[in-house]
Model the fold of this input.
Amino acid sequence: MRFIWLILQTGIATDAVFEPQQITYADDPLRIATNLLRCFNISIDPRVDALLDGERPAVYPSEKRLRLFAGGLAGTTVTTPVEVVLTHFIQGVRIENSTRVADNQKLLTAFDLYAAYFTEVSPNARFLTLIMALETLATGVDRPPLVLDLLEKWRNETGRILQTLAPDSDDAASLHGISRELLFRRQDSIRQQIRSLVLRTLAMSGEDDPAKQAVRLYDLRSTLVHGGTLPHQRLSESVTEAKDLVERILRAHFMLAAAGKLQGVFRLLVGAGRPRGALTKTTRDGAKLAKYRQKMVGAKL
Done:
């Protein structure tokens, strides 16, 4: 969890491996040393008990003599001063109950996607990865009863028609797809879910700007996925906007999860069984939301 905080603060996507590797010791350590000398033409100790993967941890007796092997493609390395890394790492360690973040699998997946943004090369992939992080955190809300009843009626009618069709026919395959689509339509669209996610997480006043920004970015995602391209300048600006938005969302969710209040905020704003009009009114009441978040988290995010 401390590494997650480090990602938020520095953009360093750590991928630490803590499981020790299995070590196979040589029957003839002298022969290994001789072979290494002959193959690589380097000066080496006359005894090598085992060869290790240089990028994985290992546990072995101190009297053993081992050699590390590591390799990869050539590349450029950008470093961050160790003082900066340690400062933010210590901040993460000091956040009370930060291990609670591990209890929310959706949040962990969103952080994985955010970390992947820093290693993606293509601007298209970076933008889509950021929007996927928002989609992961989005929570569906059932549509009004009238709409649900209508969807159920259509599904039942689809089921009756399917019984009259050959199972392997194109018509049956198409109707199966429609039936599943009707099931998914019981909840708000992903677009609306992302809007609600941003509202309930970032809305600190009566303004809807963060939510409007999220919807606009999601619409650009749809254009990129279905149209295949976005203008270069538009894409570059959208990546910057999406990165800032996702970082703010994840930072807020990290603090709320650590405080054990993340689900409480969702219940307050999604409001199971609450009329949709009441949901909208509560969400837009920025003063109430700000006061509630201050109470739940104990500090301004």
Q: What stands out?
A: The mean pLDDT is 78. Residues 174 and 257 are 42 Å apart (CA to CA).
